[in-house]
């Protein structure tokens, strides 16, 4: 059915009608009417461009009569940050008109998309997002619409995950977080594996996020090869929490890497085997090992620890000896670098921030929803990483001496 459209919006007259803030910002208020008028005028202009003539102009020659013509209007409900707007969209007889300002199947404006995605990224539940959008804009959206809108970030997440990385990362940290996900009718634990790295300029960055149930050398080998395939040539120091299969995998892909197992996690794993009455004294003696000024002194203190406690806690002390090559890497460096690498605190801090964003989601319905949520939370966190770490110049100078062969071309 053909209907006339009002394209003569009288702004001054409408302003005179406004007596309250709701008259301006509320439902059917001035802003909403103005948005409707502006969009409909743009749509009219697009149709004129499409047909090659003005709205009421018709051609009467035989050839021109075969051309396309207007065919009335269809109504489209657009959900915007100004509320629901009912648009009269012009149609053509040949159904060839494709609006550009509002795409053919688009029902939510980009600005509202961004708002919903932003709320989702901040950890709000679907029901909270629904309430927030209705409160702010007077729009009712369904849970499926929230999912559909936030699913738009999956393409961006894939692009980010596959981006080209730097050739050299002086220090990286690898760890895993665990979440509950529905899978084939069951609830399973899925791991989110994270790699955080310092760039050559001293900035923190997240190199990748991988969601999987798998673990072990084969899985970690895939992650390390992914980093290499995306451009990473050298990792100088890799800090980790004794993750199964990771040391072997990273050494295979990056043979010259120096591995540092987290001292704090090693201490935690040790202390759980110590009787309560012995903990204070044992920890005092153990501290002499990891607080030693040199590796030689640390080994001497470890020998003393074995002599004093070996009969009672041999399994604990043997763990330190068996893992010594990866536990002792930090002794090669100055106190400032030791502080950076002997724990994975920097990555654990990132993980805690991720938990703040994901805490309202006890169980994720799919791997995609978990990946989407962690990616959006990561983007929020990365926005705040705008400065290099303190005194990075001195750190890089020391690393350039220790790793002269790996860095000589980069610093030339």
From TrEMBL:
What's an example Gene Ontology biological process for this entry?
DNA transposition
Q: Which Pfam families match?
A: Transposase_mut (PF00872)
**What GO molecular function annotations does the UniProt record carry, in alphabetical order?**
DNA binding; transposase activity
Q: Which UniProt keywords apply?
A: DNA recombination, DNA-binding, Transposable element, Transposition
* Statement: the UniProt record of this protein carries the keyword DNA-binding: yes
User: Entry's InterPro entries?
Assistant: Transposase_mutator (IPR001207)
User: Out of the domains of life, which is the source?
Assistant: Bacteria
Q: Which NCBIfam families match?
A: transpos_IS256 (NF033543)
Q: What does this protein do?
A: Required for the transposition of the insertion element.
Sequence similarity: Belongs to the transposase mutator family.
PANTHER family of this UniProt entry? MUTATOR FAMILY TRANSPOSASE, TRANSPOSASE FOR INSERTION SEQUENCE ELEMENT IS1081
Its name, as the record gives it, is: Mutator family transposase
Native source species: Clostridium tertium
Upper lineage is: Bacteria, Bacillati, Bacillota, Clostridia, Eubacteriales
């Amino acid at each position: 059915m053909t209907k006339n459209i009002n394209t003569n919006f009288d702004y001054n007259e409408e302003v005179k009608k406004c007596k309250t803030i709701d008259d301006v910002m509320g439902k059917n208020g001035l802003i909403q009417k103005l948005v409707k008028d502006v969009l409909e005028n743009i749509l009219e202009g697009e149709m004129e461009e499409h047909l090659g003539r003005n709205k009421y102009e018709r051609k009467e020659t035989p050839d021109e009569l075969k051309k396309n013509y207007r065919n009335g209007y269809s109504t489209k409900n657009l959900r915007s940050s100004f509320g629901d707007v009912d648009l009269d969209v012009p149609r053509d007889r040949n159904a060839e008109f494709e609006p550009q300002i509002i795409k053919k199947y688009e029902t939510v404006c980009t600005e509202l998309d961004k708002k919903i995605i932003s709320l989702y990224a901040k950890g709000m539940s679907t029901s909270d997002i629904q309430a927030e959008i209705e409160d702010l804009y007077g729009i009712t959206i369904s849970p499926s619409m929230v999912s559909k809108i936030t699913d738009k970030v999956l393409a961006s997440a894939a692009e980010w995950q596959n981006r080209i990385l730097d050739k050299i990362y002086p220090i990286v940290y690898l760890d895993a977080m665990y979440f509950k996900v529905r899978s084939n009718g069951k609830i399973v634990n899925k791991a989110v594996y994270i790699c955080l790295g310092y760039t050559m300029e001293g900035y923190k960055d997240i190199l990748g996020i991988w969601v999987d149930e798998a673990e072990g050398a084969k899985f970690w080998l895939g992650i390390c090869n992914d980093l290499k395939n995306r451009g990473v040539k050298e990792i100088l120091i890799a800090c980790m929490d004794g993750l199964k299969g990771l040391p072997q995998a990273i050494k295979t892909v990056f043979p010259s890497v120096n591995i540092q197992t987290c001292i704090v996690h090693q201490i935690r794993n040790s202390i759980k085997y110590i009787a309560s009455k012995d903990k204070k004294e044992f920890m005092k003696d153990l501290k002499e090992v990891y607080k030693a000024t040199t590796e030689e002194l640390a080994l001497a203190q470890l020998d003393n620890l074995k002599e004093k406690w070996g009969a009672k806690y041999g399994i604990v002390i043997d763990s330190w000896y068996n893992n010594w090559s990866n536990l002792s890497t930090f002794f090669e460096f100055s106190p400032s670098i030791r502080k950076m690498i002997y724990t994975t605190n920097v990555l654990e801090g990132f993980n805690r921030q991720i938990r703040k964003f994901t805490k309202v989601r006890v169980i994720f319905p799919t791997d995609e929803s978990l990946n989407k949520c962690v990616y959006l939370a990561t983007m929020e966190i990365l926005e705040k990483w705008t400065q290099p770490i303190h005194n990075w110049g001195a750190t890089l100078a020391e690393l350039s001496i220790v790793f002269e062969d790996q860095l000589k071309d980069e610093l030339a």
